[in-house]
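Predict the 3D structure for this chain.
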Amino acid sequence: MIKKFLKLFGIFLIFILLAKNIFSEWYAITITNTQSQATPAPFQQDIAVCNGSINIGNSFAYINNATLFNKINPNGQNVYFVNSSGNILYSWYEGQFIYNGVYCDVWWIKLDNSIPANSNVTIYMYIGPNSANYYSQYYPYVGEAPYLSSTYGQYDNGNYVFLLYNNGTHLFPLNNIGSGGSENLVTNAPSPWKYAISLSVNGGNANAITWTTSGINATSNPSFNLPNSYIAQMLVYITGSSPLIDLLTNVRSITSGQFYVFRFDARPNYYDGIGYYPSGGSSTIFLNYTNIRSSTGVWYMLTAIDNNDYLYLYKNIVNSYNSYNLAYYGNLEASAKGKGYTGGGIAVTTDGASSTDYFTMILVRAYPPNGIMPSIILGQVSW
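Done. Predicted structure below.
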């Protein structure tokens, strides 16, 4: 009888151990930098779990695992990440990205240390019960995009993850109110991106003094200084009779230069392009125009990339939360060799002769080596 009991107990114990392994909620994620240079530090890595195969380019790292995808709460709130030492990592849940029928839960995590060239690091993902809310439990380490909570920005921790972050709820410390212009925070911007900075101008011309601009740089309070390579992104909505918008980078002064100009232009006979405004200048000098014109009444994501002074302008239509994905740039509109500008800040501006524009989800993040996001591989662990 004792032998039979011990045998049954042994089988039961083995079953428990196997069950613990099968149903473990800890997952190892190996992040591999395949490039011949290290990632910057800090670095913003995307972690995406999809229910199918997706191809939006090498700036997006994802895992195709429908079983894992189905374990994630629709609001991403039952997930958090830790490093190899067990310390919780800052993570920002971007939301569900839908592309060609494939659904992806997307996070951005902040890695304080660089990933060496041709090397990898391992982090761990925990998926709790569907009812868990780690936003309320672990904020600000665990957070979400502002539009995902019923109270806008309640658990938004983007400022802990990205190099610079503005979700449309605060003005930058530097400003210039141009000709007949105004600068406001609004909660009634065009749907769906209702929280935004609204800038208007009426009578602006080529001189930056006449533009309505909101910005931040290395001498402002608070201050900000761009790295040598970066990705700057924002959502923009253009209106007016003679409208255009600019994202200015490497800004020393928002009224007298120097800075780079990444432009979406909706005026007749004008086109999107990349230019620069020299220190003490009186107008933008263009490095490369396109044959593409922007439209009014459309939400675009403007992506400006500086890769060691090689400049790129991308445009993507983002008319819903599910079409918003920082790693999906859309169309490359223009590229150019820069003028050697480094450091400085960023600014957003309404630059048309008559224009009222909206700006939101303005951020800066690290540029991955050669533009290639480190890949991710999933493994299961039992702790």
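DSSP finds four helices and 24 strands in the chain.
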